[in-house]
Amino acid sequence: MRRFVRDSGLTLVFLAIFVLAIVGQSFAGLAQNNQELIEHGQPTVGYLEFVTSSDFLVDVAENWQSEFLQFFLFILATIWFIQRGSPESKKPGDEGLGTDEDQLVGPYARDDSPRWARVRGIRLWIYSNSLLVAMGVIFLLSWLAQSLAGHVVANEENAQHGLPPETWLDYVMSAEFWNRTLQNWQSEFLAVGAMVAFSIYLRQRGSSESKPVGVPHHVSSVESE
């Protein structure tokens, strides 16, 4: 167990932070939701009712879909585009999918390579693109959950104001939906771009996301090895 914790420390730390953050969000969201209900003269709701409601789900899914879209596009972009000097990028000249020898697949696979890396055909293609596919699927599912939950919330608000309900398609084409969505997208893209650019000139000693402190600005960490 001790070895597992040591070897999985990065995953476990962020999993713990995630759990603490989403629990904190649920209690803060419950307090805000109940305050709004009181202001409108309506009865408050309990914790379990709130965390299973569309109000809570739409906020969670809205953030999840933007995060996984960020990773999906970043993984895809780093196949074909480079940024000289950034540890987030391959070195110039390495653009593209790489050769089988570079990727250690098929006849170039090692004895300890994943089993699907040693085969040919559809299994190799699936495994070769599995990270991008996983991020894309999670993004689409999160986006769908956001749209469905947001549709329910929007119609609840319409009912409170005596307005007719709208269809799901009306909602996902509305300015409100895209305003909320693009708010998250633009911040994620800015953060990724800033990380790529800042890591050319700035350092953090000991971090795998940074080049070694003494590596020149124009050299990536891959080129310095």
How would you summarize this macromolecular structure in one to three sentences?
With 225 residues, the chain is mainly alpha-helical. It is 64% helix and 0% strand. The chain has 9 helices and no strands.
Protein architecture, described:
It is a single chain. This protein is mainly alpha-helical. The chain folds into two domains: about 1-50; about 55-95 and about 130-225, no CATH class. Helices cover about 65% and strands about 0% of the residues. It has helices at about 1-5, 10-40, 45-50, 55-80, 100-105, 120-130, 130-160, 170, 175-200. α4 runs antiparallel to α7 and α4 packs across α9 (about 175-200). The longest helix has about 30 residues, at about 10-40. The protein is elongated and about 65 Å long. The mean pLDDT is about 90.
Write the layout of secondary structure elements.
Layout: H1 2-7, H2 9-39, H3 47-51, H4 54-80, H5 100-103, H6 122-128, H7 130-160, H8 168-172, H9 175-201
Helix pairs in contact: 4-7, 4-9
